[in-house]
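Researcher: We're teaching a course module on how sequence relates to structure. For the next exercise, students receive a sequence and then see the predicted structure as C-alpha coordinates, so they can try to spot secondary structure elements on their own. Here is the exercise chain.
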Amino acid sequence: MARSRATDARQYEYRVVSIPRSTSRGDARRLLTDEAEYGRWELARTSIYLGGERKVWLRRRIIKVESTLGVYAE
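Model: And here is the predicted structure for the students to work with:
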Protein backbone atom coordinates (compact mmCIF):
# COMPACT_ATOMS: atom_id res chain seq x y z
CA MET A 1 0.00 0.00 0.00
CA ALA A 2 1.45 3.40 -0.98
CA ARG A 3 1.75 6.11 1.64
CA SER A 4 0.77 9.66 0.83
CA ARG A 5 2.98 12.70 1.30
CA ALA A 6 0.63 13.99 4.01
CA THR A 7 1.25 10.85 6.06
CA ASP A 8 5.01 11.27 5.65
CA ALA A 9 4.82 14.93 6.68
CA ARG A 10 3.10 14.04 9.94
CA GLN A 11 5.83 11.58 10.87
CA TYR A 12 8.61 14.20 10.71
CA GLU A 13 9.32 17.54 12.29
CA TYR A 14 11.20 20.08 10.23
CA ARG A 15 13.69 22.83 10.99
CA VAL A 16 15.00 25.48 8.58
CA VAL A 17 18.56 26.69 9.04
CA SER A 18 19.73 29.83 7.23
CA ILE A 19 23.44 29.97 6.52
CA PRO A 20 24.78 33.42 5.59
CA ARG A 21 26.96 33.98 2.55
CA SER A 22 29.95 34.80 4.74
CA THR A 23 30.00 31.27 6.24
CA SER A 24 32.66 29.02 4.74
CA ARG A 25 31.79 25.59 3.40
CA GLY A 26 33.77 23.92 6.15
CA ASP A 27 31.91 25.84 8.87
CA ALA A 28 28.55 25.06 7.26
CA ARG A 29 29.46 21.38 7.03
CA ARG A 30 30.54 21.38 10.69
CA LEU A 31 27.26 23.04 11.74
CA LEU A 32 25.15 20.50 9.84
CA THR A 33 27.24 17.59 11.09
CA ASP A 34 26.72 18.69 14.69
CA GLU A 35 22.98 19.01 14.13
CA ALA A 36 22.86 15.52 12.62
CA GLU A 37 25.01 13.90 15.28
CA TYR A 38 23.63 15.50 18.45
CA GLY A 39 20.13 16.56 17.41
CA ARG A 40 19.39 13.49 15.27
CA TRP A 41 18.44 15.67 12.28
CA GLU A 42 18.87 14.53 8.69
CA LEU A 43 19.16 16.61 5.55
CA ALA A 44 15.85 17.00 3.70
CA ARG A 45 16.49 19.84 1.22
CA THR A 46 18.92 22.65 0.40
CA SER A 47 18.58 25.85 -1.60
CA ILE A 48 21.05 28.54 -2.57
CA TYR A 49 19.55 31.99 -3.11
CA LEU A 50 20.74 35.03 -5.00
CA GLY A 51 23.40 36.72 -2.93
CA GLY A 52 24.78 33.42 -1.70
CA GLU A 53 22.55 32.69 1.30
CA ARG A 54 21.88 28.99 1.82
CA LYS A 55 18.77 27.54 3.42
CA VAL A 56 18.81 24.00 4.65
CA TRP A 57 15.74 22.03 5.66
CA LEU A 58 16.44 19.38 8.28
CA ARG A 59 14.01 16.74 9.43
CA ARG A 60 13.77 14.12 12.13
CA ARG A 61 11.28 11.43 12.81
CA ILE A 62 8.69 12.08 15.50
CA ILE A 63 8.75 9.29 18.03
CA LYS A 64 5.46 8.90 19.87
CA VAL A 65 5.72 7.24 23.23
CA GLU A 66 2.68 5.70 24.82
CA SER A 67 2.33 5.88 28.57
CA THR A 68 2.56 2.59 30.42
CA LEU A 69 1.33 4.08 33.70
CA GLY A 70 -2.28 3.08 32.95
CA VAL A 71 -1.30 -0.57 32.79
CA TYR A 72 -0.29 -0.72 36.47
CA ALA A 73 -2.91 1.66 37.90
CA GLU A 74 -6.04 0.06 39.29
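Model: If you want an answer key for the exercise: The chain has a mean pLDDT of 85. The radius of gyration is 18 Å.
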